[in-house]
Amino acid sequence: MTTSDPRISTGNSGLDAILGGGLTPSRLYLLEGAPGSGKTTLGLQFLMEGVARGERCLYITLSETQEELSAVVASHDWTLDGIDIFELSAAEEVLGDGRGQTIIHPWEIELSATVDLIIKFVDQTQPSRLVFDSLSELRLLSQDPLRYRRQVLALKQYFAGKNITVILVDDLTGEHGERDAHLHSISHGVITLSRTTLDFGAARRSLEVQKMRGVQFAAGFHDVVIEKGGLQVYPRLIAADFHTPFVGEPVSSGIVELDALLGGGPLRGTSAVLTGPAGSGKSSIAFAYALEACRRGENATVYEFDERIGTLLARSRTLGLDPDSAINSGRLRVVQINPAEVSPGQFAWMVRKEVEKRGVKVLMLDSLNGYLASMPQEKQLVLQLHELLAYLNQQGVLTLLVNNQHGLVGTMNTGTLNISYVADVLFLFRFFEADGRLRKALSVLKNRSGAHEDTIRELKFDTQGIRLGEPLVEFSGVLTGTPKYVGSRGPLMESRENGQL
Description:
Elements: H1 13-18, E1 28-33, H2 39-52, E2 57-61, H3 66-75, E3 83-87, H4 88-95, H5 111-125, E4 129-133, H6 135-142, H7 145-160, E5 165-171, H8 181-186, E6 189-196, E7 204-212, E8 221-227, E9 230-234, H9 256-261, E10 271-276, H10 282-295, E11 299-304, H11 309-318, H12 323-328, E12 332-336, H13 344-358, E13 360-366, H14 368-373, H15 381-394, E14 398-404, E15 425-434, E16 437-447, E17 457-462, E18 465-471, E19 475-476, E20 484-485
Parallel strand pairs: 1-5, 1-6, 2-3, 2-4, 4-5, 10-14, 10-15, 11-12, 11-13, 13-14
Antiparallel strand pairs: 6-7, 7-8, 8-9, 15-16, 16-17, 17-18, 19-20
């Protein structure tokens, strides 16, 4: 086949995206993976796509019965209608009366006779798509590695003369789940599914395209989730593939004094980290940016890893903000993330849908600590987050990242996730002591896209909204984490009517 030949869909949109359109037809592919990684589900999706396109499809199973397949199909609300099934038990009945004499009866079936029956069934049905599940049983029937390899090669030569797209399923079993190099060499393409059991939470599944001749594909690991409706593949995010022209104008928070700190606000296409101890006002400030975007007629999305949605909305109402109108209008979406279930690739895909489907302009992640805690055993988590931020920046989205520093007073640190170096804007929140009272302060540590005010201002929340006071110039101990105000009372703010929060 030349590169101009049309591709055929695998029946899985995520895998098609990884492959740049799908599979080259009339080729033999290897689908390998550990038990429970989703091989059968992906194979059935491939065949159902063929049925939907009016193609003849065949599923050859040497281990599962049609009843077992039907149970898998029913769990996804699918149907086997239109798919021809060849099962080993049917071959046993044809081969003689030995069936049922021993619990290891597949060993007693003559290999050549079984393969002849399969070939005869293929000749009768003449399918366009075929899934052979699995080679593990064929390996057992062969009883000899050399004989097994010769048989697999013979099957490839047989299929090469037919107009059939074949997927051979192979189980990676044993202590190390070793791959069969011989199968890799004779296959046109190799797709590997993996399953990892975590210390806590759902198992993580991933997909990797090992090779695909004549096709440019997205290399690396891609997160996979099995849910009702099939195998969901989330292609690894590559920020360089996405860029949308936009104007890097300031984004307002609706708080005049806060916007003045940055000459109007952080620019579109930048990321801002709001860092400080718990309870210092980080989430409320970030949420103010999201609500102001909705008031401008833009869409915003908030991802809550830590706090409950109800708590966030209730607190914003006590500040005189109106989250309900934004939610009812569809401008604002607040999404609760289940920490034990989400994977980095799945979360990145959720963000992409918000940006590309809803046109989100402001996105808030609360918090970085929750993001890290929900994926404790993931590899290169900071790099994956960096790629996500690069994608959002290229889409002109203002990204607000809440970062809870460890500790309330005294020297603080960011813990195991230090993402401040990738932030374009860094807000620092602190508690400080003045006249025997605990107060809050806000300052801007950096702004890559322009100038910023380097003062420390008091931050106050009450039922009439959010306020920033005059610069507090007479501080001591700011960098120790326990700043103390030793100046006059003049610049300090007091509670307004209706009381302090």
